[in-house]
Specification:
Strand order of the largest sheet: 1-2
Largest sheet: 2 strands, antiparallel
Helix content: 40-55%
Number of domains: 2
Number of strands: 2
Number of helices: 4
Order of helices and strands: HHHEEH
Distance between the termini: 55 Å
């Protein structure tokens, strides 16, 4: 059974100790603690923009949306976009390539990387991504 305990930056050391102690005391054999930074998940607005970029690029280039998304994610890995990992934390490879994370599992900053790559792809293909006024 896995539980997450969110600790806030502003918590005092006394509060942190009390929270962690209560948590540990609730398990007779103790707990294994893994520390990782909290990442805000993507926003609806950001996700909408990502989907809009994909649709526009696809419509103007003829590249199928699924293929375009995969191309963008694979290119984004070079910029720091996350990859899927196995239970040991090792990157997962498929057909000799790293498997990028699904957009549903990425943070705001990670989706920014993917959006930047999509904008690069649009520039490479002379795609108009903004409505002209």
């Amino acid at each position: 059974m896995r539980h997450e305990l969110l600790l806030h930056k502003g918590d005092t050391s006394h509060e942190l100790l009390r929270i962690v102690k209560e948590y540990i005391d609730s398990y007779p054999n103790g707990v294994v603690v893994t520390v990782s930074p909290y990442c805000m998940t993507r926003t609806k607005k950001q996700n909408g923009y990502y989907q809009q970029l994909v649709r526009r690029i696809s419509a103007q280039t003829g590249i199928q949306t699924d293929l375009l998304k995969r191309m963008a994610k694979e290119k984004a890995i070079g910029y720091g976009y996350p990859v899927e990992r196995d239970e040991d934390g090792e990157p997962i490879m498929r057909y000799g390539s790293l498997v990028p994370k699904s957009t549903k599992d990425v943070s705001i900053n990670q989706l920014k990387i993917l959006i930047r790559v999509l904008r690069e792809i649009a520039l490479e293909h002379d795609v108009i991504i903004e409505d002209e006024k």
